[in-house]
Amino acid sequence: MDQQQAGSTPLATVLRVELEHTRQRVRELEHANKAARRDVEILLERSESERAAWRAKEQERWRAIVIEAKSEAEEEKRHKRKAEHLNRKLARQLEETSSALSKAMNDLERERKARQLMEEVCDELAREIGQDKAEVEELKRESEKVREEVEEERRMLQMAEVWREERVQMKLAEARHELEEKNASLDRLRGELEEFLRNKSAAR
């Protein structure tokens, strides 16, 4: 019909040109649609790769924190064993002092010397026990501080994960919105083309 009308009316020529332009526009929109889909796929692959790298890095970081915590726990155990050994030593010394005191009770001079010796030993023991208690309290405070810092770091990492996930979802939503808009434009143009062809057919 186009070939029959090409030489008869100028309107057919105009309609053919307009139809060709419309087809060209449809091809452009389809090409843009394919490009948008490729962009979305690239964005998804890149997001997954970044997430995997970030998770690996965080796992390595937490592994280092756990190793450090274990090392600190071992150090605390060593201090505890040292304190227990010192306590046993002090207990043995106290027992020996008591034994010496009981043996020296028959002699007043020996009893006085033994009392003086026991007082000196007790003072030394009290000073050493006070020092041990102070060291234990300091270790407890440091351990509590480390636990608090680890807990704060964990909360910050959780917030960072949530923020990253929200940004990825926003980017994906934007890409889907753009793709939907392009599809809607393509559908609208197809509808207009079909309407135009129906009108043309009806006019003929």
TrEMBL record:
Residues 73-107 are annotated as: Disordered. Residues 84-95 have a biased composition (Basic and acidic residues). Coiled coil: none annotated. GO terms for biological process: signal transduction. Signal peptide: none annotated. Residues 124-204 form the Death domain. InterPro entries: BLT-like, Death_dom. PANTHER family: ACTIN CYTOSKELETON-REGULATORY COMPLEX PAN-LIKE PROTEIN, GB|AAF24581.1. This is Death domain-containing protein. It comes from Selaginella moellendorffii (Spikemoss).
